[in-house]
Write a structure and sequence with these properties.
The complex is a heterodimer of chains A (about 350) and B (about 525).
Chain A lengths: L1 H14 L12 H15 L3 H10 L7 H10 L24 E8 L2 E7 L2 H11 L7 E8 L12 E6 L6 E5 L6 E9 L5 E6 L3 E2 L13 E3 L61 E8 L5 E4 L2 E3 L6 E8 L2 E10 L6 E10 L6
Antiparallel strand pairs in A: 1-2, 2-5, 3-4, 3-6, 6-7, 6-8, 10-13, 11-12, 11-14, 14-15
Chain B lengths: L3 E9 L16 H23 L6 E5 L1 H7 L2 H24 L4 H23 L5 H9 L3 E4 L15 H19 L5 E2 L10 H7 L4 E4 L1 H5 L13 E2 L5 E4 L2 H8 L18 H4 L2 H4 L31 H27 L7 E7 L10 H15 L3 E3 L2 H7 L2 E3 L24 H19 L5 H18 L1 H9 L3 H23 L5 H10 L13
Parallel strand pairs in B: 1-2, 1-8, 1-9, 2-3, 4-5, 5-7
Antiparallel strand pairs in B: 6-7
Helix pairs in contact in B: 1-3, 1-13, 3-4, 12-13, 15-16, 15-18, 16-18, 16-19, 17-18
Classes of the chains: A alpha+beta (about 350), B alpha/beta (about 525).
Chain lengths: ~350, ~525
């Protein structure tokens, strides 16, 4: 034993760099000196010294605990150095402009950006009027016309609070074309246009009255089809009502990532107070690593060291557990029989 | 001779979520759940129908992000790990539930199924796109495409080049992975705007789908409503969703999936069991998550839940399949009376409804398709391509702008929680087009940077982020994803403008956001 110990010690000491241990030398003194001096030299760095003092018995090398300490911290993925680039999200772009999107038959959405330079320009043009002026959205209805800024069918203004960057616009009619200005309106009626949006069309909100019918043969545009039937125009027959009793899908229609929002869900109303309890029984033990163990006839997986652990959900009543082990050779067998009873009483 | 047709359309989509920088990432689970709860169970249904000589037709859209994830080696390995962990859990569960026969049966069912799924996953070399392709090659499945990253096209149209790139990149992805040009498209969120058909046509797409009011409000009024496709002015066909068949499956109140004997989705062992016991099978950070092992049936509308019985649930699925069949027969018989052609009933669903949400969904489809084939002659299942082949002459109409979201408008994707997105997405699209124009023939590192810009823009455009912000689930993740992609886009844009591309970073970001390895930024020209 003693021999073994000293050997392992020597090994570890050897592992330290710049160390000379000569096991062959008989003098006790020289061995001590040789062993201690280099350690001290090495321990010049203060961190190591501290650790040595705190955690180590004298003479036991310092490396292993130091390494273990470092390992405690889970290393970050190397790519984390690039995380800083994921904050380059811009809030604004330094350009004056307005964009219009249709949302449904009666609602438009506009977003815009106005730069300080544009405001300065407005100040110049409007002069003293600027201070009492208001930022507005001017909404033009431009269905079937080439808009030049003055020929809209109609228009209306929306006065904007400061600092707004977008707005939902309610329009009175569906199936129309719209364009929106953002501008500054002075009480005198003087108007400074900051930017004009793209034109958008809103969709229909009901079944069309148009029943003119045109039919098209796809044989030309659809090279994949061989049958050719002449384009034919037909007269309307019957009422349109029979096809599709409802004209729009029910509103419960699901959409999007179904994995995130399921169509079937019952609202679970939680009662004022709730308590859940369950019991499980853990059966554990150990045997020779190559033995075979069964519980109620079912094989149990053994860990490398021969230990095992398994658990059962426990219900009320009597449960029998037959735990038996058989040696690898099959010559030896041991069995434990367990009786487990659970009774639950509920107090209201 | 059948009197009419039914086109079942399953829309399979997930946003591109891939985080190589984390070992275990919560949102990646959506993908693994979809594989092992929906895609493989559905493919097994097809597999067995083919084995038994049952003729059937289904249309499925496999979106480009989904295809890219299914074909990604990192995610494939993680998916394998996921199912192997589930097998391990189910083994532990079989023992734990030994005293509770009713739960034990369910645990055994899971163990058996998980092992089967794993075997098939490995049979197709972890890439089940090839399994889908098999049924497409057999003519049973028509696979169509979608927007490149499921971008919401009507809200992107202020720069039509961005819409164009969504379609062009999608079609080339489809060709790469499925080996053929897609005939049709599932417009992201079924969102149509007048004019998008021209971009579809340029990219060789011959039909798309709209929601019911997309055709019912069309101009002129379509003679056969939603029960026959119409041609848009350029000859691209539009099929519309049937309301009745949708409602029977989708509706939370009347729909089949709400039956009390079907499996309850929200009771999962991930939340129910002892923390120390379940810890290895939930999120690595220790957050309780769904594991996929669920023991209860819906039972009723209260908290009280009873044990799930797969046998009774199976009978219910058969009963519902019979009911669905009966209703379609009556519907077709009624419609066929007034039409000069066979009506087509278009029934689209999110694929993930089948299996993931409605656990018995794949079984329902199996029963239904068998009944269609063996039990009646009133109608047949069909793909849109086949229908257009039979009826090449159709009415010309201009469909109405629409989506399949709440109220049928763009409201879900354009409202208080998510409208701030569009300012940035539009700006990024404009910048992308500007650079593409400035460097129409870039080479080397510049080309790589431009291609990566295109990837980041496409990823930021996914409609899923806006949808998540609206539904208030995982909002933080959706906002971060959008901002991260836009940040990376902006850095690339500035680096290119300053003529100093950060190559080590580009290497990393190419690896991280590796959707569409084959992308060509000139899609934005």
């Amino acid at each position: 034993m003693v021999k073994k110990n000293s050997e392992s010690k020597n090994k570890k000491v050897k592992a330290l760099p710049a160390k000379k241990v000569n096991a062959g030398k008989p003098s006790k003194k020289t061995v001590k000196k040789a062993a201690s001096r280099p350690v001290r030299k090495k321990a010049k760095t203060p961190a190591l010294k501290k650790i040595l003092k705190k955690t180590l018995l004298p003479g036991v090398p310092a490396e292993i605990p130091v390494l273990e300490r470092k390992e405690e911290k889970k290393p970050l993925h190397p790519s984390h150095i690039y995380d800083k680039y994921d904050t380059m999200f811009q809030d604004s772009y330094g350009e004056t402009g307005i964009v219009l999107l249709p949302r449904d038959p009666y609602w438009l959405f506009a977003y815009w950006e106005v730069t300080p330079a544009s405001i300065e320009q407005a100040k110049k043009v409007l002069g003293n009027d600027f201070n009492s002026s208001k930022t507005i959205l001017r909404v033009y209805e431009i269905t079937n016309i080439i808009f030049n800024g003055r020929n809209a069918h109609s228009s209306f203004d929306i006065i904007l609070e400061n600092l707004l960057r977008s707005w939902y616009i309610n329009v009175p009619l569906s199936e129309k074309n719209w364009i929106v200005d953002i501008g500054i309106l002075a009480p005198s009626g003087k108007y400074f246009l900051l930017s004009r949006s793209n034109a958008v069309a809103t969709p229909a909100d009901s079944i069309s009255n148009t029943d003119y019918e045109e039919w098209m043969d796809s044989a030309e545009s659809w090279k994949m089809y061989t049958t050719r039937a002449g384009a034919n125009s037909k007269n309307r027959a019957g009422t349109c009502g029979i096809y599709g009793a409802e004209d729009r899908a029910f509103e419960a229609s699901s959409a999007g990532v179904s994995s995130l929002a399921g169509p079937v869900r019952f609202e679970n109303k939680a009662s004022a107070f709730w308590l859940k309890a369950g019991t499980e029984i853990i059966v554990y033990g150990a045997t020779e690593p190559d033995a075979r163990v069964t519980i109620n006839g079912n094989p149990v997986r053994l860990n490398a060291d021969g230990s095992f652990s398994t658990r059962f959900a426990l219900t009320d009543g009597l449960h029998l557990l037959d735990i038996s082990g058989r040696s690898a050779s099959g010559n030896y067998k041991k069995t434990f029989k367990l009786r487990v009873t659970q009774e639950t009483y509920k107090e209201e | 001779m059948p009197k009419g047709y039914l086109a079942l359309v399953l829309h399979a989509h997930l946003p591109y979520i891939r985080h190589p920088e984390h070992e275990d990432f919560l949102e990646e689970d959506w993908f693994f759940e979809a594989i092992f709860e929906t895609y493989i169970p559905l493919l097994l249904v097809y597999e067995r129908l083919v084995e038994d000589g049952v003729d059937f037709r289904i249309t499925m859209s496999l979106t480009p992000p989904l295809i890219n994830m299914l074909a990604d080696p990192l995610l494939q390995d993680r998916a394998l790990k996921h199912i192997e962990k589930l097998i391990q859990l189910s083994e532990k569960e079989m023992r734990r539930t030994e005293f509770e026969q009713h739960f034990n049966n369910v645990a055994k069912m899971y163990n058996w199924k998980f092992n089967e799924y794993r075997a098939y996953f490995l049979k197709y070399n972890k890439n089940i796109v090839n399994w889908f392709k098999k049924f497409s090659d057999l003519g049973k499945l028509e696979i169509i495409t979608c927007g490149a990253t499921h971008g919401y096209l009507p809200l992107m149209r202020v720069n039509e080049k961005a819409v164009h790139a969504q379609i062009k990149v999608a079609v080339s992805c489809h060709k790469k992975h499925l080996g053929k040009q897609p005939n049709g498209i599932w417009l992201p969120e079924c969102a149509y705007y007048p004019g998008v058909e021209n971009i579809l046509k340029e990219n060789g797409i011959k039909f798309f789908f709209v929601d019911s009011h997309g055709l019912n409000y069309a101009k002129p009024r379509p003679r056969y409503g939603v029960f026959a496709p119409v041609f848009t002015r350029n000859g691209t066909a539009a099929f519309a969703r049937d309301i009745e068949s949708s409602k029977q499956v989708w509706s939370a109140k009347e729909g089949y999936p709400g039956d009390f004997y079907y499996r309850e989705f929200y009771r999962d062992v991930g939340f129910d069991l002892d923390y120390e016991y379940i810890k290895p099978f939930i999120n690595a950070d220790g957050l309780r998550t769904f594991t996929g092992m669920k023991y209860y049936r819906i039972t009723g509308s209260s908290d009280y839940k009873e044990a799930y019985d797969p046998l009774i649930a199976g009978h219910k699925a058969a009963e519902h399949a019979g009911n669905f069949l009966f209703n379609r027969e009556k519907q077709v018989e009624h419609l066929a009376k007034g039409m000069d052609r066979k009506p087509i009933i278009v029934a689209p669903y999110d694929a993930e409804l089948y299996g993931h949400w409605w656990y018995e969904g794949p079984q329902f489809l199996d029963f239904f398709l068998r009944k269609v084939f063996f039990d009646q002659d009133v109608f047949k299942t069909i793909t849109p391509s086949e229908y257009l082949k039979e009826y090449p002459t159709n009415q010309v109409c201009a469909p109405c702008e629409s989506s399949w979201g709440y109220k049928g408008t763009h409201e879900v994707w354009l409202e208080g929680s998510n409208d701030w997105l569009y300012r940035h997405l539009h700006k990024a699209a404009d910048r992308m087009c500007g650079l593409a124009e400035r460097f129409p023939n870039a080479h080397g590192t510049l080309r790589r940077a431009l291609n990566q810009m295109a990837r980041e823009l496409l990823l930021a455009q996914a409609s899923d982020w806006a949808f998540i912000m609206k539904t208030k689930t995982n909002v933080g993740y959706a906002i971060n994803e959008t901002k991260d992609h836009l940040s990376r886009f902006t850095k690339l844009y500035e680096d290119i403008n300053n003529n100093c591309i950060d190559l080590p970073w580009l290497n990393w970001i190419e690896y991280k956001d590796n959707i569409f390895p084959e992308i060509d930024y000139r899609a934005y020209l």
